[in-house]
Design a protein that fits this description.
heterodimer; A: elongated; B: mainly alpha; Ferritin; 0% strand; Ferritin-like (chain A); signal (chain A); ferric iron binding (chain A); golgi apparatus (chain A); iron (chain A)
Chain lengths: 216, 227
């Protein structure tokens, strides 16, 4: 049944002269002088979309781990699930930016890989997961730096074009959030590490409850 | 009456017999002098048919993540300056958001029932569909979305079927009820809306000015929610 519908659709689509449905329309004629992003920079931005989604999946795996009945750290799970959705939002913000600049009008289908597997799915304890999260954020920050480098270097970017606006956006919005987020994680690691000095199990238990109530 | 008491007593013993494994673990763990952290291995949240449906639920999570990415690509296509269809962009972005949220919800559910998430459990036909394009014309994109939603709905029905077999190890009303409340009814709503949209376009694209009709249809989508 599904196959029949599909075949009907395809037939309807490709034989415009015989079928009544007009599914395709001509492309509008729009000047393209305003589209001024250069290729190496666009490619870097496209890769960054994938990087943000990879981070999102890694955080999902952390959330899944700390949700388990035998791990039972709902505070950590909440923190990591929220981080996963934030990373996905970053990917969507990058896409929106590219669309605003007239990019992504073609070759959209291969922008995102359909299956991403997390690199790690088990953690010894809460502090080791927070440390992994901080390392992950630092690597995302480095990759944003790399995008900026390519997009602001006229030689590197080709066509003698320095993308001031994109660089400002990445610096002001993305790096701002990265640095604040990293400081927050480092502070959490510090506190948890100190709480666990003499009473590891109790320290993590109390820290988790504070994460859950949103106190920290 | 006596028979009833005997039966009841028997049932109580049988019940206790199958369910006191955690308690036995605890007794043993508290008696032994050596510390053993894995001593409470049976004090978990697993019961009912969760073991039987766990692989299906894990795959279902990963399918949701893939679908969320695919809808995001479809939304992206409609957001480009040439297509510039805000309504279509909105419905696909909303679908992408809801698949993502449902994936997280399913992960939480798996762990609620004592399971562990496995991100490697995927459907090959979903992940390896490399010739699938997401740069589609309006009616094509609605048709694709309708097919994807029906596939998700039928997968939910299949898992529900696994959990409703009236046999020990395969009967789990809590799983069935969760699937019904969180997925089955929502699927019916989305599928009905999408099929309504394809019917509308079927008549609109048949008219004298299908290009203007699409503009008006997109404008309508902008003001309505699909999920």
């Amino acid at each position: 049944m599904k196959a029949t519908i599909l075949i009907l659709l395809v037939v309807a689509a490709f034989s415009v002269s015989t079928a009544q449905l007009q599914c395709f329309h001509r492309k509008p004629d729009i000047p393209t002088d305003w589209i001024d992003m250069v290729n190496p920079c666009v490619r870097k931005m496209r890769d960054q979309v994938q990087e943000e989604l990879k981070a999102a999946i890694q955080y999902l795996a952390m959330g899944a781990h700390f949700s388990r009945d035998t791990i039972n750290r709902p505070g950590f799970a909440k923190l990591f699930f929220e981080a996963a959705s934030e990373e996905r939002q970053h990917a969507m913000k990058l896409i929106s930016y590219l669309l605003m600049r007239g990019e992504l009008a073609s070759d959209v289908s291969n922008l995102i890989r359909k299956h991403i597997e997390p690199q790690t799915a088990d953690w010894k304890d809460g502090v080791s997961a927070l440390k992994d999260a901080l390392k992950l954020e630092a690597s995302v920050t480095r990759k944003i730096h790399d995008v900026i480098k390519v997009c602001e270097d006229p030689q590197n970017a080709g066509n003698n074009f320095n993308d001031y606006h994109l660089v400002d956006y990445l610096t002001g919005e993305f790096l701002e959030e990265q640095y604040k987020g990293q400081r927050d994680l480092a502070g959490k690691i510090s506190n948890l590490d100190k709480m666990m000095d003499k009473h590891a199990a109790l320290g993590e238990y109390l820290f988790d409850k504070k994460l859950l109530s949103g106190e920290i | 009456m006596k028979v009833f008491i005997v039966v009841a007593a028997f049932l109580v013993t049988a019940y206790a017999g199958t369910n006191d494994v955690c308690y036995k673990n605890v007794l043993r763990a508290c008696e032994t002098t050596s510390k053993n952290v894995n001593g409470l291995i049976n004090c978990n949240a697993r019961y009912g048919a969760i073991e039987a449906v766990l692989p299906d639920l894990q795959t279902y999570v990963n399918t949701h993540i893939t679908r969320s990415f695919e809808y995001l690509l479809m939304a992206t296509h409609y957001g480009n300056y040439e297509k510039s269809r805000e309504g279509f962009e909105k419905i696909f972005k909303d679908l992408s958001d809801s698949k993502w949220e449902e994936a997280i919800d399913l992960i939480k559910y798996i762990t609620k029932r004592g399971g562990k998430m496995n991100f490697a459990a995927v459907r090959e036909d979903t992940v390896n569909d490399n010739n699938g394009s997401y740069e589609l014309y309006e009616l094509e994109s609605l048709a694709k979305a309708l097919d994807m939603e029906k596939q998700l709905a039928e997968e939910a029905h299949r898992i529900h079927g696994e959990a409703t077999r009236r046999r020990k190890d395969y009967h789990d009303p809590e799983v069935s009820s969760y699937l019904e409340e969180e997925f089955v009814h929502k699927h019916a709503n989305i599928i009905r809306k999408l099929s309504g949209y394809t019917s509308d376009l079927n008549t609109l694209l048949n008219g004298p000015d299908s290009s203007l009709a699409l503009y008006l249809f997109d404008d309508y989508l902008k003001q309505h929610s699909i999920v």
